[in-house]
Amino acid sequence: MYSASSKTMPCLLGMSTEEIVRLLEEMGQKPYRGRQISAWIYKHRARNFGEMTDLPLSLREQLSAAFSIGRGEVLLERKSCDGTVKLLLGLRDGESVECVYLPYEGRDSVCVSTQVGCPVACAFCATGLMGFRRNLTAGEIVEQVLVAQDIAVREQGENARISNVVFMGMGEPLLNLEATVKAMKLINSELGISMRSLTVSTVGVIPAIRRLAEYRLPFTLAVSLHAPEQKLREQIVPLARRYPLDELLQACHEYAEITGRRVTYEYVMLAGVNDSLKHARRLGMLLKGELAHVNLIPYNPCPEIEGFEASPPEQIQRFQEELERCGVRATARVPRGRDIEAACGQLKGSLAGRKALGRMSEGCATSERTL
User: Fold this and answer.
1) Angle at the Cα of 175 (from 20 to 144), degrees rounded to 5?
2) Are residues 177 and 34 in the same domain?
3) 42 and 96 share one domain
4) What global pTM score does this model have?
């Protein structure tokens, strides 16, 4: 648990090596001390200053009295039969968020959250039921990668490394743009994960997409489209009322032109809602000739949300084939972690909610630990 003082102390997690060096210089220390501390935080994933054994005891005591590293607590862990691990992280102010460790053949990924709750409230998504609490700091976002790295090492050995990070957890990253961009830069510079291995998802906050283009960072932008028509999209993504489809697609076109980076369009497949071949042809017309790729996402049910069903696999395949006939490349995503409610649209971020609503799928060997 946290002491009252540790909750209010300045955090070093979320600072770059250069910022930590400057801080230590202000304390009268040599620059290499700052580099040592940064390595302990980001490379060794230290949770307290006592672990930093190559620092003088007097400096460790001085740091402990004035700063917090900023690490949270893992409150709950659930493991799926497919190897996916969902983690509920307790933050210093008592809030909590979820992140998901995703092991694949040849790579390990983590899905991170950027907000506590979400103000967007997409119709099919459990996170929106929480409402919006607050933005995460850059340090709180980066910590989710550090926690996932701990899990990777535990599950696969010391040589395991998180290689990909997707900003697709709780919250809308582009409504927390400053912290999201800083977290991306820290993940790249401090954790050594390529910027090209980062993906940031958005429902389409147009001013922030235009600002992102100005950074010219080589990450992947993923836009949650979910419908090829304005009225239908408003029903699925309420924020579409503020950012119309035609303006969003124009902003994405400009983003691709400025950055030279392909835009990924996410499309959750809802039976009888947005999954007809007519919808596929309309989507194909919108994206034909664009630097674009479509990810078709099977709908993941949530007990609290009624009115939606997943499109049958054969319909998803027909939809994909129709898009490709229109000249638009598309992939059908394979769901991960459904049995532990860790898949797209299922994150809730509440310990009470997890205990009340968490379910183990019959016939699937999952495990759960409250820590």
Assistant:
1) 50
2) no
3) no
4) 0.91
Asked whether residue 46 falls in the same domain as residue 113, the answer is no
Residue in 81, 79, 103, 99 with CA at minimum distance from that of residue 90? 99
Tell me how far apart the alpha carbons of residues 131 and 371 are, in angstroms, rounded to a whole number.
26
Residue 2 domain-assigned?
Answer: no
Give the pLDDT confidence of 270-309 residue by residue, as tens digits.
Answer: 999 999 999 999 999 999 999 999 999 999 887 778 889 9
> Residues 6 or more apart from 255 whose CB is under 8 A from it?
209, 210, 212, 213, 221, 261, 263
Q: Annotated catalytic sites, by residue?
A: 98, 344
- Specify the pLDDT at position 347: 47
The mean of the pLDDT values for the chain is: 90
Contact 180, 130 (CB under 8 A): no
DSSP string, 226-262: --SSHHHHHHH-GGGGTS-HHHHHHHHHHHHHHH-PP
Domain that holds residue 49: 11-66
Asked whether residue 21 is assigned to any structural domain, the reply reads yes
Question: What are the tens digits of pLDDT across the range 257-274?
Answer: 999 999 999 999 999 999
Give dist(CA 112, CA 145) in Å, integer.
7
DSSP β-ladder status, 263-269 and 292-298: parallel
